[in-house]
Each structure stands twice: as structure tokens, then as C-alpha cells.
Fold this sequence. Notes:
By secondary structure, the protein is an alpha/beta fold. It is built from 5 helices and 5 strands; from the N terminus they run αβαββαβααβ. The chain has a domain at 38-116: Cytochrome b5-like heme/steroid binding domain (Flavocytochrome B2, Chain A, domain 1, Roll).
Amino acid sequence: MNTVAYTAFVAFLSSVLTLVSINALSSPDPAAPDDPEAITREALARHDSAESCWKAIHGSVYDVTGFIADHPTSAAVMLAWCGRDASKAWDNKRPGRPHSSFAEGMLERFRIGRLVD
Length: 117
Ligand code: HEM
């Protein structure tokens, strides 16, 4: 291989490597502090009481503190799931019985973010 071809090949290779690294560095990090939607499991777990009750349901996080008293069961049913992933409970308010579409529609107003690891 002559010198010109070799130099051109090395130059080409280094531009490809530069592009690959730029792409890797600029990939969005789901837990990045500049992502206001991202809520870690650790943060979720800190809101495990009647004073502040967050629940994750199918990847979204909801602050349902203000709804505990209005939920049509004793508060204990809701409180048992504060600070946790409540997807299974949500899908089985009674075994095999999911919440209604009315309840589903209600969730949006409590949404505060997205669960990340
Ligand atoms: C997190 C937010 C929640 C909301 C907004 C919510 C909303 C509702 C609503 C509107 C109902 C009336 C029935 C219906 O529309 O399906 C209901 C009933 C009920 N929910 Fe929830 N719920 C939540 C979480 C939970 C959790 C974590 C449990 C735990 C198992 C639970 C258990 C029940 C039960 C046992 C009933 C009454 C039984 C029934 O209607 O058959 N809910 N909920």
C-alpha cells in the first residue's frame, strides 16, 4: 500500500472512531439530572407514607397522596403500595379484576414522572 492510500485510510478510520465516540457520549441518559421526568426507584421508595405517597404503575410514577382519602376502600389498601411498583395491584384490584377505564383516566392528573432504574 502506498503512503497516500495508507494516510487516507488512517484518516478515514479516525473520523469514524470520532463519530462513534461523539454518538456514545451524546446518547440520552435516562437518569440524567437534566431529565425532569426521571424518577429512580430509590426516590420512589422515599415516598412511602400517607404524608407523601408515590406509586409506580406500568413505568409512570404518580403522586396519589391527595387521593388516599377518596379511594373507595379503607386507606390501608392504598397505603400498602406507597413507595412501590403497584402495577400488579393496579391490574388486580381484586384477583384478575383490573381497575376500570374511568380509574385509568383518573391516573393522568396524578402523574409526576417516569420510573427509571
Ligand atoms: C394508584 C392510584 C389508584 C387510583 C387512581 C384508584 C382508583 C380507583 C377507582 C376509581 C376505583 C373504583 C372502581 C373502578 O373504577 O375500578 C377503585 C376501586 C378499588 N381499588 Fe383502586 N385506585 C388506585 C390504586 C389502587 C391500589 C394500589 C389498589 C391495591 C390493590 C387498589 C384497589 C382497589 C380496590 C380493592 C377497589 C374496590 C373494589 C372494586 O371496585 O372492585 N386501588 N380504585
